[in-house]
Amino acid sequence: MRAVPRVVNASLFKQQQEKDRKASNQTARSFSISDANLIRSILAQKPNNTKHLAIHTLAGGVGFALTVPKKLAKRAIDRNRIKRLMREACRQNLLNLGDQQVVLRLRKKIGESSSGKLREQERRQIKAQLFNEVNSSK
User: Fold this and answer.
1) Out of 3.50.50.60, 3.30.230.10, 3.10.20.340, 3.30.1330.10, which CATH number does the structure's domain 29-136 have?
2) Residue spans of beta strands (DSSP E) within the chain
3) What is the DSSP letter of 26?
4) Measured in Å, how far apart are the chain's first and last C-alpha atoms?
């Protein structure tokens, strides 16, 4: 026999999930850009380049898109990790972007010296570039 009814446990679980979501400051799906024509028009703008990244911006509206081509990061694990880093940078600086639409694009092949695998040193470099560039584009 249950000590606490299942309904109570489920509602407490949902409340905790809501608190966790608010605490982690997740971005809403409404901030992601999914219109291909809009992404093309943003990519047509001159990028702000770093060693590994290109940051394209367009004034008007708020949102971001991420592109990590398979040609530049062969392994899905590496592409997903880079996208997570990009999302984290956008999420932390979303309020600082103001009225801009941003497309973050990987521009350099990763893992050239390590047989196509993203290594810790490259991951740290990409993360540093992401946070420095997104902060400076305020």
Assistant:
1) 3.30.230.10
2) 48-49, 53-59, 63-67, 100-106
3) P
4) 57
CA 67 to chain CA mean position, Å: 9
CA gap 52, 125 in Å, rounded: 8
The band of 17, judged by pLDDT with boundaries at 50, 70 and 90, is low
Give tens-digit pLDDT for 40-57.
999 999 998 888 889 899
Q: Quick one: which of 41, 138, 44 has its CA closest to 89? A: 138
What residues have CB less than 8 Å from 130, skipping those under 6 apart?
53, 85, 86, 88, 89, 104
| DSSP symbols for 108-120 | S-S-TTTTT---H
Reported in sequence order, the residue ranges of 73-115 that DSSP labels E, i.e. its strands, are 100-106
pTM: 0.69
